[in-house]
Sequence to fold (231 residues):
Amino acid sequence: AQTVTQSQPEMSVQEAETVTLSCTYDTSESDYYLFWYKQPPSRQMILVIRQEAYKQQNATENRFSVNFQKAAKSFSLKISDSQLGDAAMYFCAYRSAFMNTGFQKLVFGTGTRLLVSP
Amino acid sequence: DTAVSQTPKYLVTQMGNDKSIKCEQNLGHDTMYWYKQDSKKFLKIMFSYNNKELIINETVPNRFSPKSPDKAHLNLHINSLELGDSAVYFCASSQDSAYNEQFFGPGTRLTVL
Fold:
């Protein structure tokens, strides 16, 4: 079974600074997808960024980028120019690409709470 | 327009009661899910339905019974509620592909007293 680990329960950053959230995962599969979801106090789960394991190029979405290290099974999220609105819980998630191993489900990490100070 | 909606958003009830949470998506997706988020914010899959058929049942007690009357709806019925059932329950939907984003509903906070 796949597992996802987020070792930082909480991180702090000042506005306009850069912060990196860590995520490692364990799988024996060669093809899969990785996601970062944001959960603000409103509770809504919002997709921030996704990465396909077969793509070597790191995904980027505006101020959000990932550092995907497939061999190390590491998938960190970098937030540049942090804004107050980035304050939230961030969840790393894994999804298998194969139907027979339950590709329909997301396996989540335990989350990292990001605090942003002015 | 709300993509994935859940009712109710909050539910407070007594132990032993039976309750239902409803979920509807207007995205035309063919796969729907129920996730549970516990008090420590840990999110875990409970069920997955594809075209009204159960695909995933992650060792959830049989007091929990999902029902999908059609592709756009996935309801969750819980019998004999226990204190440990207190959590936030999220419904989600997606097109049936590993790449596709799962869209989440706003969650239902269930409190069992």
Observations:
- Residues 4 and 89 of chain A are 15 Å apart (CA to CA).
- Chain A has no helices and twelve strands.
